[in-house]
């Protein structure tokens, strides 16, 4: 097999693998992330939480910046290897409650320091 044919075969295989992976991943991901977490925040805290999420990651659960992961850019050590949406939400609520008392207070801190 000449080099050109080899490259075509490899590219085809990679394309097939990429397609297969994208088809399988959502099913696997939904099996892992079937847990649902519902935050019980009042309107002002919900708004502050969304404001912070937008500033930290543009709202993306997949955002990464070194050791900081997800929608709220939490340290990977806080998430304990579970990067699901439910765990990110629950962990962020717990973190903010323990550190600031509320999302409104966390937003105030973010405004004055550029981080929370």
UniProtKB/TrEMBL annotation:
Signal peptide: 1-21
The entry's keywords: Signal
Keyword Signal carried by entry: yes
Highest taxon, organism lineage: Bacteria
Protein name stated in the entry: Aggregation promoting factor
